[in-house]
Each structure stands twice: as structure tokens, then as C-alpha cells.
């Protein structure tokens, strides 16, 4: 009797009433995969820097004009400017990305991370170029090369905030106009961006990534349909 009960107990941890195998579907392996990519890319940066800083920058640093080294639009998302930068983004990825990874598929998670990282990086280059030299704000903005996963990490944070059960519950009870929800998201993105600002920080990338994540979370673009499916466990 006791052996049978223990067997049933173990089985219940791996699946729910709908037959959903959480040991595989709830895997956080996309996080591990991204961490491995971070380390491999960082090692490649160090090796190419030995050849020349220009070689490393040409492979991993996003800079203007974007058409000169177009591959950096992708590679810059996974590159980092130093050990501290790598560690801080890795820790943030684990904290904010783990619940999102458990609520969606591996392909959707990786696609979301890459797309939001690309959008954030391009926005940093474009918007800093627009505001640089403008009256009042131009002195605070400088168009500079950019690299790092923080834009995508901020998108994960935004998605987590906008798509969790509490947010979804409030949205179902409180009927607000779409324009007002967008306005609230923009204000929240500005507040979070300013709170995390500092010298050498890509503020436009943080702002864009967080805002895109909020909007994506509101639309639940990573949601996997089905009763008891992953999308309901955020």
C-alpha cells in the first residue's frame, strides 16, 4: 500500500489532470540555453579582441550605419561589455525569464527574446541619434555603439508584469479604454527606465524593451492555448 501511494504521489508532480507533462513542458531549459549562448559569445568576444578591438566590434557591437555590419543587429543582443555586464544580465534573465519560459514554448521564448532585443538595440541607435544635439535634451544624449541583452531582459520583465494572473484579473474586472492602457504602460516604462538609469546605460533600449514587453504581455503573445496549458501558469 505505501509503495503504491508513493508512486501515485510522484506521478502527480509530473502531470496535471489534463495529462500535461510539466517535467518537459514546464522546462526552464531556454534560460539555460541563453546563458550558454551568453558565455560562448562572450568568450568569442575575448578571442576576437586579441586580434583587434575593431574586429570584435565589427562582429558583436551594433553601431551606425546599421547596414555596414548588419549581422550585429542579432549578435549584439547576446554580447556583453564585461564580466559585470554579463553577470547582471544573466541574473536578471534568470529572475524575470524563468516564469515566462515555464509558461510558453522554447521556440516562442527564444523568438521573443531575439525580436525584442533587436527592436531595443535599433531603437537605442535611432532614438539617440534623433535626440542627440537637440535643445534641452541633446546634452544628455549621445549616440554610441550598443551591445547587451538588457533590452530583451526588460521586455521579459514587462511581459511578466502585464500577463500575470493579478494583472489579467484586474483587466477582466476594470474596463479601461485601450488608449488609457497604452498611456499607463508608457508612463510605467518611463518610470522604470529612469529608475535604472546611469552612466553608459542604454536608456532608450530599456524603455523600448520594457514597453514592448508590456504590450506583448497585455496581448499574451506567448500564451499557449488549451485548458491547463502553460499559458495559464504565469
Automatic annotation (TrEMBL):
Transmembrane segments: 34-62, 82-100, 112-131, 143-162, 174-195, 201-221
UniProt-annotated stretches for the region Disordered: 1-25
Record keywords: Membrane, Transmembrane, Transmembrane helix
Record-linked InterPro entries: Peptidase_S54_rhomboid_dom, Rhomboid-like_sf
Protein name: Rhomboid family protein
Main localization of the protein described in the UniProt heading: membrane
Locations listed in the record: Membrane
GO function terms (MF aspect): serine-type endopeptidase activity
Its membrane topology: Multi-pass membrane protein
GO cellular component: membrane
Domain Peptidase S54 rhomboid: 69-219
